[in-house]
């Protein structure tokens, strides 16, 4: 049986119940692990949010993006799909009742 994933959050990431409503979990589809600094720099340039947001590495190519406003979160979901450093990132709203393994990263919407 697989061990549950232990999540170590960055000190800057607040996982209070209020903040969890404004969190996206993203899985970057890449055959190799991307570093957090590169991911953070890429999304900071690409995502034009009204307010600042935090980035926390939750596993190999799995990141949590914490937003101060629901508007920023909804905007990013509606403007997808997104790529980070040339790799597709699949974003899901974080449900604090689920583990990372329970989130479905098997599909992504595309404009045709």
Supply the key terms.
112 residues, alpha+beta, five-stranded antiparallel sheet, 3 helices, 5 strands, globular, disordered N terminus
Broad structural category: alpha+beta
Q: Give the oligomer, counting copies of the same chain as homo and different chains as hetero.
A: single chain
What is the N-to-C order of secondary-structure elements (H for helix, E for strand)? HEHEEHEE
Q: Determine the number of helices (DSSP H or I, runs of at least 4 residues).
A: 3
Largest beta-sheet details: 5 strands, antiparallel
Span of the ends, CA to CA: 41 Å
**From the alpha-carbon coordinates, what is the Rg to the nearest angstrom?**
13 Å
Strand segment count: 5
Walk across the major sheet and give the strand order: 2-3-1-5-4
**Unreliable residue runs:** 1-19
The dominant shape is: globular
Please state roughly what percent of the residues sit in beta strands, choosing from under 5%, 5-15%, 15-25%, 25-35%, 35-45% or over 45%: 25-35%
Question: Helical amount among residues, as a percent range?
Answer: 10-25%
Mean pLDDT, rounded to whole units? 82
Q: Please, could you describe this protein's structure?
A:
This protein has helices spanning 17-20, 36-46, 70-78; strands spanning 23-28, 53-59, 62-67, 82-84, 87-93. The longest helix has 11 residues, at 36-46. It has a five-stranded antiparallel β-sheet with strand order 2-3-1-5-4. β2 (53-59) and β3 form a beta hairpin. Helix content is 21%, strand content 26%. The protein is of the alpha+beta class.
């Amino acid at each position: 049986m697989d061990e549950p994933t232990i999540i170590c959050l960055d000190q800057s990431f607040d996982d209070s119940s209020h903040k969890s409503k404004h969190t996206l979990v993203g899985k970057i589809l890449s055959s190799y692990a991307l570093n957090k600094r590169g991911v953070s720099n890429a999304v900071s340039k690409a995502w034009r949010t009204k307010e600042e947001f935090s980035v926390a590495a939750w596993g190999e190519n799995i990141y949590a993006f914490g937003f101060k406003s629901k508007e920023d979160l909804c905007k990013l979901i509606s403007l997808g799909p997104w790529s980070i450093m040339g790799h597709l990132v699949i974003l899901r709203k974080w449900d604090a009742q689920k583990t990372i393994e329970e989130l479905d990263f098997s599909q992504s919407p595309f404009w045709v």
